[in-house]
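Budget justification, computational time. The allocation requested in the original proposal was used primarily to generate structure tokens for proteins on the priority list. As evidence of use, we reproduce two of the resulting records. The first is shown immediately below.
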Amino acid sequence: MSLVAKSRPEIDIKEAVGEFEFNVVPKSMFAPDGSMLHCSCKSALMAILEKLDGTRTGSNTEEHEIPPPERTATRMKVSLVDGMAEYDESDEVRLIFDRRRQECQEQGKQAPIYYKITDATLIAKTPMKRLLSHVKTKSELTQYIARKVLEKGQESGKNVVVARGTRCQATHRDMAHLESSHEEADTKLLLHAVDATSSGATCIEMVSPDTDVFCVVPSTILAAM
């Protein structure tokens, strides 16, 4: 608790302790009948699901067909991409990044090296782990990619939306209403899915290499049904 109070001063500890129950073991680790849902590591979840009968999982891509609005019968596909995961051609592409807080520098055995990201930065021979070891480099790389994607989208006439930090920009319309302080792209994906649907999307494709997205998105959709 003292670590949380020191690293996240914006959290009201008194309110958090008073309003939320503490458990020795998270309830999410148990099934309704009391049996334990054992998974020693998050990365093993996909392999476990693939062994289940009737489960079809080729990648962490969730695609959901949505009944089209009555006002139009035109099919509109929107791809929500977590970071730089690969995606197929869509009518609109939304690139969504995590928000990196400058004070949350990852710890390691060696001091992280800061690389200033510009068009002239040579990173071809730099290991990705070293390149991304400094939180400032990650932030600058995100800004650089976001800017280049928007520029490329404008040049090619593509509908592109980029969410990074607290900002959200697009090539074809104002997206200020989607600016948020969410740190994880996992939850931003859901915000963009709702917004894309309200804008006329009939097919939502979520592309992410993150197991959290694979777990959170289906459960959220089922809970909303």
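The second record produced under the same allocation is shown here.
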Amino acid sequence: MQILDSGIVPNVYFLAGTLILLIVLAVIYWVGVSSFRVLKGLNIPGPTPLPYIGNLRDIQRLGGIHVAPVRLMQEYGKVFAWSVGRTPAIVVGDPEILKHVMVKEFQNFRNRFLLFRDTRSEMLHGMFSATDDKWKRIRSTLTPTFTSGKLRQMNPKIRESCDTLMDKIGKVADTGESVDILGMFCQMTLEVILSTAFGIDSEVQKNPNNTFSDKAKEIFKSPTFLRMFLMLPFASVFFKIFRFLIHNNNMKYFIDLSKEILSKRHDKTFNRKDFVDLMLSAVNPDGSRKLSDPEIIAQSVTFLLAGHETSSNALSATAYYLALNPEVQERLRLEIRMAAETNSDKSPHELANDLEYLDCVVNEVLRLHPPVHTMNRECAQACVINGITIPAGMDVTIPFYSLHHDPDAWPEPDKFDPERFRGPAKESRHPFQFIPFGAGPRNCIGMRFALNEVKLVLFQILSKYKFVRSPDTQVPLVLIPGATLIPRDGIYLRIETA
């Protein structure tokens, strides 16, 4: 009997251990796939997500999060479902549905979809992260900054920085030297933002070792470990624990800089009508300020970073495509030269914004290389749009890059062709097929500022110089999808006097 008992006990332990192991494995699997269940009842096609990683493997295989939707739309249609890690989303590449999401039913999609909302972060007060009535109040307060009159007041400062850039270009033109044109434009646009928005005459362009530029580049990269967070079953908990890795010294640098700027303005010793002054002087009928100090700091950081990064990317990408398409560049230079010769009474700003072909060139660059490759909105209440059911709380992903490279809307989508933006080609295209700055009430508030700056700088440079492909020019350009599309190896060109 003792022998029998000694044989039974190990078997019981083995069976119990096996059962516990199977239960644990089942729970682990369930946690890894549970968030995908919301997609099953929607009848929306899409690639099958794997436990925890979702479709990250598909995204990587297809070339990155900016390119993948182009391929997936060809396989599953203009609306499909996927999961980035454990986060399910509906990707909308149908321009008519996007019109509903961004304009017609904006109240139901007016907030950005943010996986984590860090209540202790100063940036939670920023216009990008703000929600509902708070966002509306901040947006309406900042809108007067970007009127035509305000933009004209900024043009002298833009031209000052452009003159400095022209001096730098003059030193390298005709030398045969390959120039890091992205770096040059980054320094110039940073100098413009600091001057026009914050009243700081920084002379960034004369200081090649600039801390600001280096830290800004790091912020716009997407850390690999953030993707790993998306796979974890308790991602929000891990985010709170390891938040110091995300809100690192790079972001702290810009927050501290904005605090310093605001502190000087409170001293009343600085009088300059700019972005900070507008925020400080905006008051309610009862005399109270519309924006608190934390809100002003958050908007300042947002504008400092986004205002210089998007413009420098657009300028450097334009230089790149002009160098690779010399016939387009010569046609554009001819338009600029003729406008200057026949309208000597107009300012460069007026001329630049009146040039049709320049507008076509800039738009084609923004199509190929949009400021932001994707954007997300959160569905507040369940709804049905053109037969597509969108549950409450769902991430609705807007794939700007993929919209701009959809072969059904853009024949030969990878070809640089400014003629797409005038005549029948433009008139026959759905307006929401090209939305580089977003659309509707929550579009990019700095769009007019960015376009004004880009066109004025290009007008000045191309009046005298031309961009030329060099042996160091990367073809095709390799882009890294961080917060923006970043050229992995920079953009190197030659510059010649024309």
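A brief technical remark on that second record: The radius of gyration is 26 Å.
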